[in-house]
Write a structure and sequence with these properties.
There is one protein chain. This protein is of the alpha/beta class and 506 residues long. The chain has two domains: 330 residues, 3-Layer(aba) Sandwich (Alkaline Phosphatase, subunit A), CATH 3.40.720; 115 residues, Arylsulfatase, C-terminal domain (2-Layer Sandwich). Strand 12 and strand 13 form a beta hairpin. The longest helix has 32 residues. The termini are far apart.
Amino acid sequence: MSLNRRDFLGSAVGGTLLSLSGGSVGAAPIGTDRPNILMIIVDQMNLDAISAYREILKDPAYGCHWLNTPNLDYLVGNGTSFIESHSADPICCPARASVFTGRMSCEHGVFYNNIGIDADVPNLGQWLEREAGYKTVYCGKWHAGGAWNCPTISGVRKIPGFDILPVGSHYGVGRTLDYEVSTSTEAFVRNYKDPRPLFMVAGLLNPHDICFWHPVSSRGLITLDEDYYGLGEALPSLPPNQDVSFDETGITDRNKIDPNQWGDMQWKNYIHDYLRQIEILDRDVGRMLDAVRARDDNTVVIFTSDHGDGAGRHRRVGKWQPYESSVKVPLIIYGPGVRAGAVDQKHLVSGVDLFPTVCELAGAVSPQNMRGYSLVPLLRGTAMQEWRDHVYYSFQHTGRCIRTKKYKYVMRYKFSGQVSKPPSGPEVPDLPFVLKEGGAASRFVPGEGDRFEKEPNEFLFDIENDPWETRNLAGDPQYSTVLEAHEQLLRNWEAMLDIGTRHDRN
């Protein structure tokens, strides 16, 4: 049974919407110059899976050539988007915790899934509520620290700093959860008339459902090994690096599908199904955009993902990898004063940039020890005084990456395999985390990387000339100076993170 708008607002969920929004039917512009901010964060979406990027990412193996995303295209055409956008840690909880704290995994403490953000590190909801007087609301998948993924409204505040707008599926799968999140968010935004500016987050789950399509999945669903629907040339091209492999001992050994498991047709069907999930997600985004456009006020929309998907590249599915498929994520910002149709291919940006960006948009001072830069000058087209020449990110607990404009450097400390931090206990000292030289287990100390044993392999890729990461240059003597320079950048980061962590504890 479908509900019209009046019936929906009279229902239990509709009543909750009105209660949280502090108003009655009908929207009115808020009486403040500070914008409403709607952040849409999705799960496992590759940067190249937006059809508007076809003229920029011309290789036919990129996802943009095999799907249509009119609503995301609208955001690209009417906002500012970033091609060099990187996850801070390509797995759900660590990446999301970095987005919502502006800090790295070894600082906020969420270095794997389902553990809590360190109590000393504020999240965006807490900060905007306290420092800028925002109404802060969360709907959908959180999964940025804690024992739950999609909190309901029952009980105390499940997410510090946010009121919860509930949906019926609790967690479920994207094909059901995302419709509920998008329609609930649409109704809330349309009817919001509280005098306080609004910071609202819509956490969508798809295209994460693709995790159920492969043999690594606990659901046991696998893709087809034949062209069952007769799609023929409508099936996507295979990536040119699919069969490129390296000695990955200790670096990246997750979610790889061996050639004897899947043939070309299974990969084509996997990628095809993944892109269809993004097209469904695009429609969910469209509902929320309709609500923003109906308000016709100062609302800013931020769209991003926590990490990408292997999508067959290096024979990978899922996330966790330091490869571009896992790390590069969409980032688009749309709203009043934001340059329309600007596609930034120059500036290296990171998930940690969103916290200081939101703070500047909201007129709030950022907390100390932010690791990101505010993107607002880039959104406005303002001349930049300075910008970073590299981004840092982590992966698989102890992996570390430095990405400069031209190169990517990847290494990993040896992991002890012991992670006993409980989901609800943010203050657990001295976890066994990596191995010291000699084999003793110890918690990793930022800034003291030289004390810890490293895995034997390293990667160095020339991303400018080898965007599909087909050649590891780490063992080539011609690149020894480049390798050393990137190792120094990593040491500089560890020293800086050490200073910030110690400051938080004092």
